[in-house]
Amino acid sequence: xxxxxxxxxxxxxxxxxxxxxxxxxxxxxxxxxxxxxxxxxxxxxxxxxxxxxxxxxxxxxxxxxxxxxxxxxxxxxxxxxx
Length: 82
Known about the structure:
alpha+beta; two-stranded antiparallel sheet
């Protein structure tokens, strides 16, 4: 009877250690490579020539892109001395 009890205790310890090892392997690693930021296309301002992210563009209906509202207004005004 004592032998059976020790066998059960040993089996429980082996099962517990195996389960703990699986949990460690499945845990996310802290030294994993960080996710890369999304790549965004760059546009060139029709007024000053500066490159800027497409999400920040001020665009005319004709498809001309500007880096800011001020440059759009300057480009659209007839008395522009660019």
